[in-house]
């Protein structure tokens, strides 16, 4: 469809369990979200992405769905959800829903049938294999530790689960399964939703032989056999033809391990698949060779190279999505900024980056307040299955507990899942009961009530960035060019639109840093569009000394 409204949109991601509790049971819910829509409208966002709200035993907080067409009891009813959609549309915003169809819950009716017998009509909705010499069919490891296979005594076979053993992978090779999914998607679209965020959508096609990685003992990451698998584009084209193309919607795929070249195949304007994907390259800059929990310092030059590669790589081909955190990641401020002395400055600086690149920015709940990572003293306070499984596995392998806890502090998903900090009252105004996960103890100084009142808050800076986006056609600028690429403390770039340029200069650290504009960039006049500091009088912008975490955005003409 011609209308590409999603290019001009800013998306706000809600993790419902932690957003707002309306009835004191300690769990965020749909009426709670409705009560905060004016807060989101004031911020200026256009689209809300709602993480899964479907019926679920909550092994993975709703990413294990037992019924795709009903609402999780803790979150409310389908009537509550319909009210939410109406209230979002009344405010001229849009709603996109999470689509989790690489796997379902093991409590989904399809799986309950599937495991009954080898000739059950639903057997082939999942991926079953006999054992190989009395052990798992192959050596793939699960994203959540251990083997990706679970033995099922009823029929003496194993089923595949790339995530938890309560998240069996669906078998996309089966055309009947695909039709059921398309029918379900159509049902939601006919209710009037505005699109989907598609969970690990590039994992749906597995190499049919399910070959082992074959790296010796133990379980291994089998990504080469299921990331961007052999039939994934065929499936997405089919989904697009049969469902997506019939609606004026936006789609964003979560795609693990994609390069810009891979991404172009998913989001290419002439590909008829998806509108955008989330890539993981920036999320890996602080991971060592042993993966996510192997914590290493990140390097600004590497970060700049990755962003430049994606900006240039998709230019004129497809659209970027822009994010630095979500419900699976630590808080971006703690990870890439300074969550103590320069919390305000660095949060605004990072926001400036996300909102001045080409693409659609995603704000994760609490980001607009400068919420930070959390350090719980005891593992018993953590709730995330990925974290808990890793803890057990690493402990059993004899790893030192301090090292494990440090990895959790730096990378654990619960960093982003502590409740929204609404005000300074008990439990941050999130609930009148006991929250399902503890509130970050810093809620008295970091909360929405205080941020909305303070015109210099991070929240109002986001509001201004969003306004700027529309007032100055920030999405329109093209030809991204990195400046001072070898600088280890500055991130600077220009983008061009006709004879105008957008110049962005960001100091990523607390030490002052010197910016030098290359001689070949010429202009008659300059205008400072936004900054996280009071502007200095008569600045010569060819040579600027940036203050700690300073962010400057100029329009050059
Ligand atoms: O970031 C990750 C890599 O370790 C994982 O936390 C994450 O599981 C991966 O990014 C895939 O994420 C999505 O699918 C998972 C779910 O747990 C995540 O919340 C979801 O965003 C399984 O549905
Ligand atoms: Ca509740």
Question: Would you mind describing this structure in some detail?
Answer:
Helices cover 26% and strands 18% of the residues. The longest helix is centred in the N-terminal third of the chain and has 16 residues. It folds into three domains: 355 residues, Glycosidases (TIM Barrel), CATH 3.20.20.80; 52 residues, Oligo-1,6-glucosidase, Domain 2 (Oligo-1,6-glucosidase, domain 2), CATH 3.90.400; 80 residues, Golgi alpha-mannosidase II (Immunoglobulin-like, Sandwich). It has 14 helices and 22 strands. The mean pLDDT is 97. The strands form six sheets. An eight-stranded parallel sheet has the order 11-10-9-5-2-1-15-14. It has a five-stranded antiparallel sheet with strand order 16-17-18-22-20, covered by helices on one side. It has 557 residues and is of the alpha/beta class. The protein binds 6-O-alpha-D-glucopyranosyl-D-fructose and calcium ion. The site of calcium ion has 6 residues, from loops.
């Amino acid at each position: 469809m011609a209308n590409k409204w999603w290019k001009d949109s800013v998306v706000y991601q809600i993790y419902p369990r932690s957003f707002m509790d309306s009835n004191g049971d300690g769990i965020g819910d749909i009426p709670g979200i409705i009560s905060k829509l004016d807060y989101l409208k004031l911020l200026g966002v256009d689209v809300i992405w709602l993480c899964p709200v479907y019926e679920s035993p909550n092994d993975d907080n709703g990413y294990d769905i037992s019924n795709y067409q009903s609402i999780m009891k803790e979150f409310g009813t389908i009537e509550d959800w319909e009210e939410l959609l109406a209230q979002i549309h009344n405010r001229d915003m849009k709603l996109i829903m999470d689509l989790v169809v690489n796997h379902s819950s093991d409590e989904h009716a399809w799986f309950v049938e599937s495991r009954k017998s080898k000739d059950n009509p639903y057997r082939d909705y999942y991926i079953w294999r006999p054992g190989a010499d009395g052990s798992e069919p192959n050596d793939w490891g699960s994203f959540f530790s251990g083997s990706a296979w679970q033995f099922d005594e009823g029929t003496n076979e194993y089923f595949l689960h790339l995530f938890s053993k309560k998240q069996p992978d669906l078998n996309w090779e089966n055309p009947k399964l695909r039709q059921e999914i398309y029918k379900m998607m159509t049902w939601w679209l006919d209710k009037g939703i505005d699109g989907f965020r598609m969970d690990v959508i590039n994992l749906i096609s597995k190499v049919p032989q399910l070959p082992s990685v074959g790296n010796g003992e133990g379980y291994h990451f089998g990504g080469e056999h299921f990331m961007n698998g052999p039939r994934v584009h065929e499936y997405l084209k089919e989904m697009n033809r049969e469902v997506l193309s019939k609606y004026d919607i936006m789609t964003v795929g979560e795609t693990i391990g994609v390069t810009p070249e891979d991404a172009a195949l998913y989001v290419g304007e002439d590909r008829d698949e998806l509108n955008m994907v989330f890539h993981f390259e920036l999320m890996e800059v602080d991971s060592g060779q042993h993966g996510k929990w192997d914590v290493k310092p990140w390097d600004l030059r590497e970060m700049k190279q990755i962003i430049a590669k994606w900006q240039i790589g998709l230019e004129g081909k497809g659209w970027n999505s822009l994010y630095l955190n979500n419900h699976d990641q630590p808080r971006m401020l703690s990870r890439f900024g300074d969550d103590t002395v320069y919390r305000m400055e660095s949060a605004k600086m990072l926001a400036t980056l996300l909102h001045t690149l080409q693409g659609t920015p995603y704000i994760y709940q609490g980001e607009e307040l400068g919420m930070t990572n959390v350090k719980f003293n005891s593992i018993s306070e953590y709730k995330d299955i990925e974290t808990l499984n890793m803890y057990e596995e690493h402990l059993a392998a004899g790893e030192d507990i301090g090292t494990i806890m440090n990895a959790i502090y730096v990378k654990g998903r619960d960093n982003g899942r502590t409740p929204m900090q609404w005000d300074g009252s008990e439990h941050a105004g999130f609930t009148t009961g006991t929250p399902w996960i503890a509130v970050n103890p810093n809620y008295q100084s970091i909360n929405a009530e205080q941020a909305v009142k303070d015109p210099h808050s991070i929240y109002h800076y986001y509001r201004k960035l969003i306004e700027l986006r529309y007032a100055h056609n920030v999405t329109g600028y093209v030809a991204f060019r990195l400046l001072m690429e070898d600088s280890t403390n500055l991130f600077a770039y220009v983008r061009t639109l006709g004879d105008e340029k957008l110049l962005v200069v960001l100091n990523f650290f607390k030490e002052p840093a010197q910016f030098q504009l290359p001689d070949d960039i010429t202009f008659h006049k300059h205008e400072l569009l936004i900054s996280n500091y009071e502007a200095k009088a008569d600045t010569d912008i060819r040579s600027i000394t940036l203050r700690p975490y300073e962010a400057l955005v100029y329009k050059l003409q």
